[in-house]
Design a protein that fits this description.
The chain is an alpha/beta fold. It has helices at 4-53, 73-76, 98-105, 109-120, 160-174, 208-224, 251-268, 285-295, 315-324, 347-363, and strands spanning 91-95, 129-134, 179-184, 231-233, 274-281, 304-308, 329-334, 368-373. The radius of gyration is 38 Å and the shape is elongated.
């Protein structure tokens, strides 16, 4: 057995070794900390001395512009793949209705010029694709036609020369490259089966050729005003009988008018105007386009398809059309918040509606977007 004395000695020895080890550890740690502090002080003093010599110590510097959420580069980066291209964009614009022309005629010259500048100058909206009604429409001061005789001997565009054409010329002074899409709301009453510009009705078969000549005269008269009609729709909203100027066409009737009358008679007169079918809402655009272009043979006569937005977005129909007819133009020719499924008095909501429509259209192959009236009186329809 081990003696108690030996055990006691070992305990004291162990305790002594522990104390020595602990002392050495603490001393070394203190020395290390002290060395670090000394080095830091030396570096600070050296930096201060250097800055004093360079005259950089406590001097006034220029203001630093810290980035905000609106100018941080990461938020503004747009990646463009130059190897991938999509549809050609013809432009954006609005309609030169008689109400627009009249409303502008009632303001003073400065306001008039400001409005035209804002719409058509490059540092404004730079409108470059606009719509014209052929004859009167629902935003004319009253109903009218360019001719009231079977032989069209009285044909003239004097009515348009009062408000519409002067406004167009003002726009052309700002932008010489505006393209125009014209649309008829109705043939003259005597050419229709209801003998009325309004309430639908149909073009009588015996007047199809006369109607085509009427439209040729319209284009020619506008050319004399240095206004070229680049595109023409066959009929505004051909699937509706409205209380205002309107006329109905089936797909077969529309195709027949285009193939056998409009296209050949325009060609005979060396007119370069291109034709667009449908010019109505997107909900039925796919079925109607297939019916007109394929089933009724208008494929080689129509350059594109026009449409409105009043029954909803239906972007999937545009996507399908773009796949079925990749060489045909798709042009939004009319839209407003006054008549639509999304009508609202909330201006922000209406703005969001426009943004959604434009983005959705462009993402699905659309080549141009035309708003409806550019200017109206605040309280409603303009009256002289």
């Amino acid at each position: 057995m081990r003696s108690k004395r030996r055990d006691t000695i070992e305990k004291y020895l162990f305790f002594f070794v522990f104390l020595v080890y602990n002392f050495i550890y603490k001393v070394l740690l203190y020395y290390i900390i002290l060395i670090v502090i000394i080095l830091e002080v030396v570096m600070i003093l050296t930096k201060i001395e250097t800055n004093i010599k360079r005259k950089l110590f406590l001097h006034k510097t220029e203001k630093i512009a810290f980035p905000t959420s609106s100018n941080i580069i990461e938020f503004d980066v747009i990646s463009v793949d130059q190897k991938q291209s999509f549809q050609t964009l013809l432009g954006f614009g609005g309609a030169f209705t008689e109400s627009t022309g009249y409303s502008l005629s009632t303001v003073d010259e400065k306001i008039y010029n400001n409005i035209i500048d804002d719409y058509f100058l490059k540092d404004g909206l730079n409108y470059s694709l606009c719509r014209l009604p052929i004859g009167s429409c629902d935003f004319s001061l009253n109903s009218y036609s360019y001719s009231y005789k079977d032989n069209l001997s009285d044909f003239n565009i004097k009515r348009d020369q009062k408000y519409i054409i002067p406004t167009i010329k003002s726009a052309q002074e700002r932008n010489k490259n505006i393209k125009f899409v014209s649309s008829p709301w109705s043939p003259p009453a005597f050419m229709k089966d209801n003998n009325d510009l309004n309430n639908g009705g149909r073009l009588l078969k015996k007047y199809k050729k006369t109607w085509a000549k009427y439209l040729v005269k319209y284009v020619q008269n506008y050319m004399l005003e240095n206004i070229n009609i680049d595109y023409m729709t066959i009929q505004n909203e051909p699937n509706a009988s409205q209380s205002w100027e309107s006329c109905r066409y089936t797909a077969e009737e529309e195709s027949d008018l285009l193939r056998n009358y409009l296209f050949p008679i325009f060609k005979e007169n060396n007119l370069k105007t291109k034709f667009l079918i449908w010019d109505h809402n997107k909900d039925n655009i796919l079925e109607r386009s297939i019916n007109c272009l394929v089933q009724n043979g208008a494929l080689n006569y129509a350059s594109g398809i026009a449409f409105h937005w009043y029954t909803g977005s239906h972007f999937q129909n545009l996507s399908q059309l773009n796949k079925l007819f990749p060489n045909k133009l798709l042009i939004h020719t009319e839209g407003c918040t006054g008549y639509s499924n999304f009508n609202s008095s909330d201006e922000l909501f209406n703005a969001e509606m426009y943004a959604s429509e434009i983005i959705g259209d462009l993402n699905n192959g659309v080549n141009g977007f035309i708003d409806w009236n550019m200017v109206l009186e605040y309280n409603g329809r303009a009256k002289p």
